[in-house]
Amino acid sequence: MNLDNVFDCLEERGFIDQVTDKKAVKDILSQPVTCYIGFDPTASSLHVGSLIPIMSLVHMQRHGHRPIALVGGGTGLVGDPSGKTEMRRILSREQIDENALSLKRQLSQYLDFTDGHALLLNNAEWLTNLNYIEFLRDIGKHFSVNRMLTAESYRQRLETGLSFIEFNYMLLQAYDFHYLFEHYQCVIQMGGSDQWGNIVAGVDLVRRMKGKTVYGITFPLITTAGGAKMGKTVSGAVWLDGKLTSPYEYFQFWINTDDRDVERFLAFFTFLPMNQIRAIGNLEGEELNQAKTILAYETTRITHGEDAARQALESAASIFGKRSIDPQMLPSSTLPRQLNKALRDAMPTSYVEGERLEAGIPAFELFEEVSLCKSRSEARRIINQGGAYLNGDRIKSFDERISAEHITGGEILLRVGKKKVHRIKPKNT
Fold this sequence. Notes:
Elements: H1 6-12, E1 18-19, H2 22-28, E2 34-39, H3 51-62, E3 66-71, H4 93-107, E4 119-122, H5 124-127, H6 132-138, H7 145-148, H8 152-158, H9 164-167, H10 169-184, E5 186-192, H11 196-210, E6 215-219, E7 232-233, E8 236-237, H12 247-255, H13 262-269, H14 274-280, H15 285-304, H16 306-320, H17 337-345, E9 349-352, H18 354-359, E10 361-362, H19 363-369, H20 376-384, E11 388-390, E12 393-394, E13 401-402, E14 412-416, E15 420-426
Parallel strand pairs: 2-3, 2-5, 3-4, 5-6, 9-15
Antiparallel strand pairs: 1-6, 7-8, 10-13, 11-12, 11-14, 14-15
Helix pairs in contact: 10-11, 12-15, 12-16, 13-15, 15-16, 16-17, 19-20
């Protein structure tokens, strides 16, 4: 558990957009608190666009706070108009309940729900039992229609038409915050920037009904450097469910990240230390491709587990060529241990008799033997031009002997240029 202030962590990584009271929020986060984020159960799976709120809850938990993942089984029956130009399709109660169960299972992959360290709740438990007349008298009286209409989510929809059922959504979400404060001592609601109006409404409702102060935090809308909405591709959404988007497809989605987004996405979607991420952000060319491999491996590992991430990495290596994941391109200190091992495991490897390595093999012969060069003459030329490396050091002479003395960690790494790498292992180890 990290007891440093999680607000500083979130701010450094770019998660913070708006805060109801920044100083007060930082102060209360100096001690363990309960926070929540709502997830809309309109589908059986969340997608990549939901990762910002998910990762923020994980950061909260890693810093000693108790997150509540609230599945909107009740509000999903109404439909959130935020960020939508038209009314959402209304799903049946059975569909909503089935989706809510799927989301609960999915969120368990990211958060530790054992022993109350985090809570999974469904607002259908309290919203579907409300008496409409009592709700209007007790809750509705605290809302001004004029003020509600100033909310961005409502103003946009007034142009295309806002249904009365959607108009009630803000009241229901505000009531959620009130209910969670009353029953679970939840003092912070977080969500996307399009939820600001709903969050502020909940803060105001708790103040009016309980005379207490609670707080809100919103995250920025994440788009790619090219301006596309995060998680959307030509073929559709990138789902977190491995049955809808396979771990391999998920891995490839991150591998194809725009160069300009790599550093930002590493900060958002992995737990790598920021000093390492900033160092990666300065890379170019093939070295930047290695950073994309780190991004793809880590995001796949977090969502689908280490075995799936390793398999996706190895599949990519077999299809696109192992040269694309050369671990020599980055200092090992920037690589998570499991990724460094996975990259090495995916490298082409040759096993050479221990006796030959003891005697030493001329570099130009070994480079041709393991197919790093097409011929010995090509190997001589490349080595003489300074384009061949032994364990990261440039080979100075084409006939330099590569021997058992060069074994480090049970292996010898050979490289040509920046892309072609090969591992040598003695047969007797």
